[in-house]
Amino acid sequence: MHKVIGKYAKQPVIAIDTETTGLEWWGRTFRLGGVVLFAPKVGASYTAVGHETLWDVNESLEEVIDSVKELAADDTRVWLMHNRGYDENVLRRYGVEFKGKIVDTMGLMWVINPHERSFALKKLGAKYVDPSAEAEEHKLEAYIRSNKLKRYTQVPIDIMTPYAEQDGRLTYALWEYGMKHLPEDQVHIHDKEQAWIGLLSRMASRGLPVDVDLATEHIDNLLAEAHRTRVDIAKQANMPGFNPGSWQQVLNAAHRLGVTLPSSEADVMAASSLPKEFKLGVLRYRQLVHTVGSYLEPMVEIAHGAHDGRVHTTFRTTTTTGRLAAGNPINLQGLPRAGQDQAWQGDIHSSVRDVVRHPDGSGMQLGFADFAQIDVRIGAHYAQDSFLMDVLQDPDGDIHTQTMNALVAMGVTINRSNTKRLVFGSQYGIGADKFAADVSGLDDAGDYFGISRKQAGEWLYAHRKRFPALVHVLNTAEQVIQQRGYISLFDGRKLALPEGGDPHAAFAWLVQGSGAQVIKTAMLAIDQLLDPARARLILQVHDEVIFEADEDYMEEAGQIVADAMATVWRVCRVPLYVQTEVSAPSWATKRKIGHRSPADKEAWIRFATESSYVL
């Protein structure tokens, strides 16, 4: 074993951190710069393996990795990481797999206080364990700026070492602080969060399959249409060289057409009296360019640059409600889908999810399992409204149509689409102004539709009058969080009211936080139940779980996923229904595979027996 790393062989708890050439650990050109270890009895050690200053400061990469592997093979050792999803995947790239328990101190501190302004290691360190925690970082940043460096691995070892070793000490100190201050009634929440972070780390390493050639074809087609659209609307405005992407040029063109716009935002243009063809053209052009620049081109770039040719994302778990978020370098949760479209978007959105597919002949397929109206079901669980609970018993029941019929019976004139917006808006305490803005846009013919603030207020009033139990639980949640300072989810997790927070949002937090706990727990169960050699989870998009499986295992995998999702919350007052689909052949073109739960008693017994995750 390496002489420096070997001194940690007898330490039961070790903090570990990595210094690298960048944040994109999946990249082909990504390199490890060094490894930091810390344990109280032996102190901190930074071992450089990839610094670009003086090569003789570097230790043998192979020897260092072999030594870390040897330490990681001990299943009794506890490892501490701050942002596990990064450091674990960095070392995973070099073949390191940790057999022992891993504690992510970022996740630990989130359970204690989800309202932290920043979960960065130095920020938390300075706040809780060492007021001077940011000093070394400031020194390092000043050196990098003054010498115009691009990467940490370009920093001399004598400057890098104090900064790197401090990371190890801070991680360990935060763990000690966190475990000391973790409320006893939140220990089970912490344990589940740590398991969740581990699953997300594995999901991030797997990425999403993308057909780069098809994506390039879509890019060419969309840009060609964007060019044609630009030429057409330039003629309409009589402005050669007109750029629909320039807000100032759009305002000038509108003025030429006799319309004064306060801005060139989509909702303002849609509601304006501009000629239909002009505003549709501008909006469609922007959507074409946005789809290419924000989704398709980045996906191609990431896939080309990734060591495995797949598209990776970074998951973030430190949101207030616990809902999963994704980001750098691309938000895979935010890929647009057909069905979200207004008139100027047409089939543009479908081109993005269309490129997410396995290669022909790979023997793999994508699977999708989607909770049906889970936010409404959670709201009904807490409100205990008899109408909602009755309708939601039927797997084929349409809560929005039934609600529309109930409102129409009260003399309200409203369609299903607006009723759906009303159901969700009322549940989250939306106001008339915001609701009126949401219920607006262009129809398929390009004509503007919308409602007044007065109309929005009347609809909201009617809905609240029809569903007093929902109004009661909204008011109760607000009162509870004002009195206690927090509101408890069904599993005991406490959502505290942040300083300056709006108590009116309490029920929204309750519903969203509960939904996050349900899908989180279901995915942990699914991860236990699927055959890891034949299927694996790769993404979660709000209330949808995405997995990939061997073609000959997809049917069985789909049933396992649906059963787990539908039965994980055993005390829910309304059933959770799940629809599963399979790529045919892409995310944009799916077909149902016939699994609709809740599962029968036999499936529930199997789930409860084989999985340690139930609510």
SSE order and pairing:
Blueprint: E1 13-20, E2 32-39, E3 43-48, H1 61-72, E4 78-81, H2 84-92, E5 101-104, H3 105-112, H4 121-128, H5 135-146, H6 157-181, H7 187-206, H8 212-237, H9 247-256, H10 266-271, H11 276-305, E6 315-316, E7 325-326, H12 350-354, E8 364-371, H13 374-383, H14 386-391, H15 399-408, H16 416-427, H17 432-438, E9 440-442, E10 448-450, H18 453-466, H19 468-484, E11 486-488, E12 494-496, H20 506-529, E13 535-541, E14 544-550, H21 554-567, E15 578-583, E16 590-597, H22 601-610
Parallel strand pairs: 1-4, 4-5
Antiparallel strand pairs: 1-2, 2-3, 6-7, 8-14, 8-15, 9-10, 11-12, 13-14, 15-16
Keywords:
22 helices; single chain; globular; 615 residues; five-stranded mixed beta sheet; five-stranded antiparallel beta sheet; alpha+beta
Structure in words:
The structure is a single chain. With 615 residues, this protein is an alpha+beta fold. The protein is 48% helix and 13% strand. The protein has 22 helices and 16 strands. The protein has helices spanning 61-72, 84-92, 105-112, 121-128, 135-146, 157-181, 187-206, 212-237, 247-256, 266-271, 276-305, 350-354, 374-383, 386-391, 399-408, 416-427, 432-438, 453-466, 468-484, 506-529, 554-567, 601-610; strands spanning 13-20, 32-39, 43-48, 78-81, 101-104, 315-316, 325-326, 364-371, 440-442, 448-450, 486-488, 494-496, 535-541, 544-550, 578-583, 590-597. The strands form five sheets. Strands 3-2-1-4-5 form a five-stranded mixed beta sheet. A five-stranded antiparallel beta sheet has the order 13-14-8-15-16. β13 and β14 (544-550) form a beta hairpin. α2 packs across α7 (187-206), α15 packs across α16 (416-427) and α16 (416-427) crosses α18 (453-466). The longest helix has 30 residues, at 276-305. The two termini are 44 Å apart.
